[in-house]
Amino acid sequence: MTTTDAMDPDLKTLLRRVKLGKLIDTLPERLSLARQQKMPHQDFLTLLLADEVSRRDSNAAAVRAERARLDPAMQIERWDETSKVQFDRALLNELVSLRFLDAHAHAAIVGPVGVGKTFLAHALGHVACRRGHSVLALRADKMLKTLKHARLDNSHDAEMRRLLVVDLLIVDDFGLDAMDATESRDAHELLTERDRAGSIIITSNRGPDEWLATFADPVRAQGAIDRFTSNAFDLVIEGESYRSRLKPQLASGSQTGQRSRAQRH
């Protein structure tokens, strides 16, 4: 930075007064760029404001993702393309477009343990946060337990509303364990009401056709599950668990350790 790029203290004060203090970090670079390109004043102002809008959008998305309880590491650009799994890539691209969210449709991400179901669900949640949507991600067993405990202090209605008001609800590991009568009632209400309130992504080791057996009242649950499946995309993931992919590395490390011990002896 040259001496001519040094910022006037009064300018710094004014930027902070109008809540644009973050521009101070990048303004010298932008000033230098404007001089080099002989940028018109209007274009220079547009560039500065675009920087600030981008920064605020990024910060807002990060705050939404944190409130949503999304794993910060599970973002679509961090998906391991070398993973030995198979799924419909065109369908995933369709889900990433979030058109299903605009249509209040749902998604079921189904597959065995470790193939990336939770990762892709959270990744879709991050995409939704970046585009200004409200999201909440919960594990099914914890969600149902929280709803059950909420009945004891009369906060059940408030807790259920929290699950219904978000644009996208992500429920992880649904349908793994048998539910008692209270849990079944809550799961039934959630599936029924979310169909009107907004979209839901459910991940499970079992397909929707197997969820019915986990409800205490299968006859009553049939309608809620049918309503979900009739308005849901089915993303089926098949392939090796990530745990299996780690085995060769662990074995190699173990053999290296054995050779080292043998050499010492």
> Could you say what the CATH architecture of the largest domain is?
3-Layer(aba) Sandwich
Overall mean pLDDT? 85
In whole angstroms, how far apart are the ends?
A: 61 Å
Question: How would you classify the helix and strand content by structural class?
Answer: alpha/beta
Q: Major beta sheet, specifics?
A: 5 strands, parallel
What does this structure look like?
Helix 7 (about 140-150) runs antiparallel to helix 8 and helix 7 crosses helix 9 (about 180-195). The protein has helices at about 10-15, 25-35, 40-65, 90-95, 100, 115-130, 140-150, 155-165, 180-195, 210, 220-230, 240-265; strands at about 85, 105-110, 135-140, 170, 200-205, 230-235, 240. The chain has 2 domains: about 5-65, no CATH class; about 75-240, Rossmann fold (3-Layer(aba) Sandwich). Strand 4, helix 9 and strand 5 form a beta-alpha-beta unit. It has 12 helices and 7 strands. Residues about 250-265 have low confidence and may be disordered. It is of the alpha/beta class and about 260 residues long. The protein is about 60% helix and about 10% strand. The protein is elongated, with a radius of gyration of 25 Å. The strands form 2 sheets. A 5-stranded parallel β-sheet has the order 3-4-5-2-6, with helices on both faces. The chain has a two-stranded antiparallel ribbon with strand order 1-7. It starts with 8 loop residues before the first helix and ends with a helix. The longest helix is centred in the first third of the chain and has 27 residues, at about 40-65.
